C-alpha cells in the first residue's frame, strides 16, 4: 500500500464553507471513495487555505481512475471546484500536487529506507 500526500489551495473567502461541506460529505461519495481504494483518507486545512490531503491506496493511478468512473465524483468535483485556487483542469481531483515522502517512522524502525 502506498501513502499519498497532496496539497491544494482553498480560497481564503471560502474556508468556512469548505469546512462545512466536509463535515457531512455525501454518503454516495464516501462509499465511492472506499470502493475505489482510498483508505485512511484525511484532509487538513490551515487558516491560510493550504489544504493537505493524505490517504493510503494500492495504486494512485488506479484509485483516481476508479473514482473517475463514478457519477458521484463528477458531481462532487463540480461542486468543489469553486473553492480552489489555480486548478489547471478546473477539477480538484486533477489539480492536486502529490508530495514526495521523505520519512516514515515505521519504515525506518523496520530497516527500510
Question: What would you note in describing this structure?
Answer:
The protein is an alpha+beta fold and 113 residues long. The chain has one domain: Alpha-Beta Plaits. Helices cover 41% and strands 22% of the residues. The chain has six helices and four strands; from the N terminus they run βααββαααβα. It has helices at residues 15-23, 27-35, 60-68, 71-80, 92-95, 105-109, and strands at 2-9, 39-45, 50-57, 97-98. The protein has a four-stranded antiparallel sheet with strand order 2-3-1-4, with no helix packed on it. Strand 2 and strand 3 (50-57) form a beta hairpin. It is globular and about 45 Å long. The two termini are 16 Å apart. The model has no long low-confidence stretch (mean pLDDT 94).
Provide a quick synopsis of the model.
By secondary structure, this protein is of the alpha+beta class. The protein contains 6 helices and 4 strands; from the N terminus they run βααββαααβα.
Amino acid at each position: 500500500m502506498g501513502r499519498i500526500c497532496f496539497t491544494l489551495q482553498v480560497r481564503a473567502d471560502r474556508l468556512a464553507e469548505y469546512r462545512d461541506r466536509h463535515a457531512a460529505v455525501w454518503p454516495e461519495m464516501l462509499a465511492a471513495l472506499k470502493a475505489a481504494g482510498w483508505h485512511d483518507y484525511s484532509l487538513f486545512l490551515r487558516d491560510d487555505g493550504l489544504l493537505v490531503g493524505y490517504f493510503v491506496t494500492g495504486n494512485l493511478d488506479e484509485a483516481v481512475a476508479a473514482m473517475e468512473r463514478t457519477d458521484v465524483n463528477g458531481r462532487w468535483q463540480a461542486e468543489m471546484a469553486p473553492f480552489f485556487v489555480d486548478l489547471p483542469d478546473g477539477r480538484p481531483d486533477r489539480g492536486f500536487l502529490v508530495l514526495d515522502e521523505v520519512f516514515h517512522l515505521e519504515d525506518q524502525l523496520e530497516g527500510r529506507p
